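Backbone geometry:
***
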Amino acid sequence: MVLTSTLSMVGIVHAENITGFMVEATDGNIGATADHTVTFVTPSGVDAPGDVIVFTYGSQADLSGVSTPGDITLAVDNDGECDGAYSDKILAITAAANTWGVELSGQNLTFTPPTNATIGEIAAGLCVQVTIAGVGNPTFASSVQLSIAGPFGDSGYAAFSVADSNQVSVTARVGVGGEAGISDLPPSDTTAPVIYRVEIEDVTETTATISWLTDDYADTLLEWGTDSEYALGQLSDIQLLLTHSETITGLTPGVRYYARITSADVAGNGAVYELIEFTTGDLTAPIIIDPQVTQVSTTTATVQWLTDELADSIVEYGLTDSYELGSVSDSTLVLDHILYLTGLDSGTTYHILVSSTDANGNEGMSEDVESPILTELACGELCESVEVLSDAVETESTDVVVTEDLPISDEN
C-alpha cells in the first residue's frame, strides 16, 4: 500500500529524561520507506560544542537509503509545546562555526553542535524537531526502536510497530515517567502476550524443536540447559510474530534438558513460560568390547566383556549359533560385565553370544566368530584342557570346547 499523505504513527514510547518524545512516520507498512519526524523536549539543552546528541535506531530499521546532511533537518521551537514554528539549524557533514555536524554511521545518527556553540545553543526546555527521510521499514511484522542519548545529558526511548498492509498504529506521546503528554491518547499497553500451545517436536539425539503461539505480536527468546538455570544457550528472533518456533542443535544424546521461552510485545511487556522438559533420543547401541571366556572348567565358564556406556548383561549359549540352550543375564547397568555359565558338558563345543542394552533400549550384540585360543583349566582328579574359541581382541563371540584328552599339570 502506498500512502500519499502523511500518516502519523508511533507505538509505545518509554521516556526517561526526555519529555514530549514523539515519532511520526509516513508509512507503517512492512518493507515500506518512510520519512520520520522526531520531536522531543530537552530538559538540559545544548550549551557547548561537546553536547552531542545521538539518535540510535534498532537493527530493524534500514538506514542505507538515508543521506547526510541532505535527508536530515534539525530545528528548534521557541517553547516546549512542540507546536511550531521551528527555526532550522544549518547542517553539514562536519561541525563548524554556526553549523551543526551530522554523521550517519551504522544505526547511529550523531548531531554535533557548532564549534562556537555557547549556552543557549538549544535552550533547556525547548522542543527539538528532527526529520529523517528514507528510513526503510523491516520486511516482516516487527517494531522499529529509536533511542536518544549522548553527552548533552538527556535520554529517551521509543518503539513503534510495523504491521501488515492496512494496519496502522496511532500517534503517541509520553512525558517523564510515562505520563501522557496528550490527554486524548489511548492508555499505554501494559498487558503481556499470552503464551499457549507450547509443543516439543522432532526430538532427535542432538536436536529438538520447540514451538508456541502468542495472542499478540511478540518477539522470540528460547533458553535451555540441563537445569533451571538454562545456561547452555539461547536462540532469539526480533520479529514480532504470533507463531514462534526455534530448533536447538548440538545436544547430547540421552540427556534430559529444560527450556524457557519468553515473548515480549512492542511495548516491552514480556511473558515467560518455563521448565519445559524434554529428553534427547539415544539411538546408539552400546559397543561390545573384548568379549572373553575365562576360568573354564568341565562344567562352568565365566564370560566377561566391556561396553562404552552403561548397559545390562546377557549371555546366550547353545550347541549351535541358534543359542538354543538358554541365557543368563543381569539387569544392572554397568560398564564391566561378567556372567557365569554352569551345567556345561565336558568335551562339548558351545556357541556364545553376548549382548548389552542401554537405558534407552538400544542393544549392542557380539558376533559368533571362530578364532581359537587355548585356555588351561583345573579338572578335579583328572587333568584336562579346554580349547576356548574366541577372539580376545576383536572377535565379539566365543565357542567353548571342553575336552579330556590333553593332560596338564595339576598346579591348580
Q: What stands out?
A: Residues 288-402 form a domain with the Immunoglobulin-like fold (CATH 2.60.40.10).
